[in-house]
């Protein structure tokens, strides 16, 4: 039995230690905002935070998550009113929306580390999160909206 701290709650799960964290989050705990994309940590759809730092949940064994403060998109703001979530709506970022929880989690980690990033820093930090709809300019505008306080 492993104990995980996710979104401020404690969960005990009976899974093999090598089980990817993504499957525990989605299938066992039913926190389905975190998405499966590639399964090899390359697309960013499964981005969550460990102690405020972004990680790819598909490539992290659940045993590595024990003792960490894990945040999923559901925990960013329980009412969906985190400044980034509101900026995403204001800038009409999503098209299909599938990758957006991972995009928002990556952006939240960026702003936690660097509250006033430059355009180049935004592009560099976000480049590992892929969007099939190519909403990259709107994603950048939404991040800049939060930075500007609009």
Q: Largest sheet at a glance?
A: 5 strands, mixed
Show unreliable segments. Answer: none
Helical content band: 25-40%
Q: What amount of the residues lies in strands?
A: 5-15%
**DSSP helical segment count:** 6
Helix and strand composition category: alpha+beta
* Termini separation: 45 Å
The best one-word shape is globular
Run of helices and strands: EEHEEEHHHHH
Could you tell me the radius of gyration in angstroms?
Answer: 15 Å
Per-chain topology:
Elements: E1 2-6, E2 9-13, H1 21-28, E3 47-50, E4 53-56, E5 69-71, H2 73-76, H3 83-90, H4 100-113, H5 119-126, H6 136-148
Parallel strand pairs: 1-5
Antiparallel strand pairs: 1-2, 3-4, 3-5
Helix pairs in contact: 3-6
What does this structure look like?
- The protein is α+β, with helices and mostly antiparallel strands.
- The protein contains six helices and five strands.
- Strand 3 and strand 4 form a beta hairpin.
- Helix 3 (83-90) packs across helix 6.
- The longest helix has 14 residues, at 100-113.
- The model has no long low-confidence stretch (mean pLDDT 95).
In short:
By secondary structure, the chain is α+β, with helices and mostly antiparallel strands. The chain has helices spanning 21-28, 73-76, 83-90, 100-113, 119-126, 136-148; strands at 2-6, 9-13, 47-50, 53-56, 69-71.
